[in-house]
Amino acid sequence: MGATGSKLEKALGDQFPEGERYFGLENFGNTCYCNSVLQALYFCVPFREQLLEYYGNIKNPGDIEENLLTCLAELFMQISTQKKKTGVIAPKRFVQRVKKENELFRGYMHQDAHEFLNFLLNELVDILEKEANSAKGSKEHSSPSEKIPNGIHVAQANGVRKEPLVTWVHKNFQGILTNETKCLRCETVTARDETFLDLSLDIEQNSSITSCLKNFSSTETLNAEDKFFCDKCCSLQEAQKRMKIKKPPHILVIHLKRFKYMEQLGRYKKLSYRVVFPLELKLTNTMEDADCEYSLFGVVVHVGSGPNHGHYVSLVKSHNHWLFFDDENVEIIDESAVQTSFGSAQEYASNTDHGYILFYESLATNNDH
């Protein structure tokens, strides 16, 4: 532990970023899925800052009931306030809380890092929404003006009550997709918006994130038994359907669907396809408006040939340095090392490190990574 720490400090020397901490996380028996995601989230600077600010605003942390949000905030606080610049921390309380909240993560089986990220972000949103609603509830009880019958109806008429709450988790990760369906008979376009915290993309051999995003937004024809019920024609019609990113998020999280269910095998198979992901990404064809530019700052990598075993590590960019986090171990790496996790052009290659979850930050909000 001390050796890695001092080695990393020596490697960075006087380039060690002021106030930054680089700590490995102890593994509690197959908890690498959790550690790799935590490191990517810790180095998602806007998210970390808002989480620590949230924790700082809690008057008496001892008085509030422990939940996943408080455990995560405590862990990030613990890392950021360490006297040493490097070392190892045991995220024991956080891992125990995760297991308590979700039986899926209780065993010692190999878990899916994307499922964990999804569960974590949704759980944080739920906790923040509940807190906001109970705060709103107590305000309403104490406010006499709210007791006027008309007052309540007016609030609903203006849509105040129905507005979904936008938490700071949403502000970082949430984007909006538009699902457009065009009836080929009357040419009416029906658009339906839906929110997302990450994008799951189908992958192909020897492809790139840009081509995967193009496929995600490609036009699909609905015909035969897939016809679309057009409200204007009042009947089933052939239609064209496509998905577009209407509002891109500040932090774009891309999940590459590397685990595919194979009907003939009756099980999942890992796709080791080579999918190139750039350090700078432009969202073009998916957008309704101008281009949106992103910079890569985190990659959760799945190491191993199959879906039910293997290991997770993460590559993280912090203050223009790339770091490799493998549970307790933290090393500085060259930027070119990121390319080793693109995948393999051949089916059976010796390198089984494959980029699985990518974290991009919008350059409009880039916070000195």
From TrEMBL:
Its protein name is Uncharacterized protein
Source organism of this protein record: Smallanthus sonchifolius
